[in-house]
Design goal:
Keywords: Cell membrane, Membrane, Transmembrane, Transmembrane helix, Transport. This is ABC transporter permease. Belongs to the binding-protein-dependent transport system permease family. The chain is an all-alpha fold and 275 residues long. Helix 2 packs across helix 8, helix 3 crosses helix 5 and helix 6 packs antiparallel against helix 7. Helices cover 71% and strands 0% of the residues. The chain is elongated, with a radius of gyration of 22 Å. It has 11 helices and no strands.
Length: 275
């Protein structure tokens, strides 16, 4: 079946491409050193010289937002990839083999699901200590379970299909069946879920940094920058608000892209059965 790409999908893909390109090239695009303090430029309002103004150390906020995008976005991408791999491995193995293997893996998954995501992430980050890597581990611990549940249900539906039985009869091993026959038929929903989770992970990483459990000051990261900006919110609201605005816009774009990817992969949408 032929799928059509709409203008809004092209626009969103272009927007995401621009965001990723800016994140990659951020060190070369910044007008000022993101960590260079200037006592003569403390808390200057937005202007042609400093587009987002300066913070309480005289650092250019726009430069710090650009540098922070590299950490915030690519760390979130890494979290999604790792969580997806772990979750899909657990879910596929449990769903395919069933029985005691499935019961053990799902009970482990249920233990992680028993705690609210943010609470578990804070607890893990608190035990491990601050820092980007530890914050990533904390968020992965709260994210992989969703992919485990999703992939398990998909595999349970697919493993009894005729093409899987034919592969078994032809002598394919369980590993070959999982990798070459079942996995390709589960990617649609998994990709949609992953894209929709990007904004959630960006917010989670920013939240941990905001609480002092993620990226440490003075490293540029959106959550820690918002936390610093709150200290001077009344004197210089642009420090926190400009970073918050960028964070919200990026999250909205990724959420909209996830919706469009879901519609693109949904056969009903492409046949015109849904508005």
């Amino acid at each position: 079946m032929k799928r059509t790409v709409t203008r809004i999908q092209v626009f969103l893909l272009t927007s995401i491409g621009i965001v990723l390109l800016i994140s990659v090239l951020a060190p070369y695009l910044v007008p000022y050193d993101a960590y260079d303090t200037n006592p003569d430029a403390i808390l200057q309002a937005p202007s042609a010289t400093h587009w987002f103004g300066t913070d309480n150390f005289g650092r250019d906020v726009f430069s710090r937002v650009l540098i922070g995008s590299t950490t915030s976005i690519f760390a979130s991408f890494a979290i999604i990839v790792i969580a997806t791999i772990i979750g899909c491995m657990v879910g596929m193995i449990g769903g395919y083999y069933g029985g005691r293997v499935d019961a053990i893996l799902m009970r482990i998954t249920d233990i992680f699901l028993a705690f609210p995501d943010l609470l578990l992430a804070i607890a893990v980050a608190g035990v491990l200590g601050g820092g980007l890597v530890n914050a990533m581990v904390a968020i992965i611990a709260t994210t992989w379970t969703q992919y485990a549940r999703l992939s398990r249900s998909l595999v349970q539906d697919i493993k009894n299909e005729t093409f899987v039985k034919a592969a078994k009869i032809s002598g394919a091993t369980n590993g070959e069946i999982l990798l070459h026959h079942i996995l390709p038929n589960t990617w649609g929903l998994i990709i949609v879920t992953a894209v929709l989770h990007i904004s959630t992970v960006v917010m989670g990483l920013a939240g941990l940094s905001f609480l002092g459990l993620g990226v440490r000051v003075p490293d540029a990261e959106w959550g820690s920058m918002i936390s610093e900006g709150l200290k001077v919110l009344y004197q210089a609201p642009w420090v926190a608000l400009s970073t918050s605005l960028v964070l919200v816009i990026v999250m909205m774009v990724f959420n909209a892209l996830g919706d469009q990817v879901r519609d693109y992969l949904d056969p009903k949408t492409n046949r015109g059965e849904r508005p």
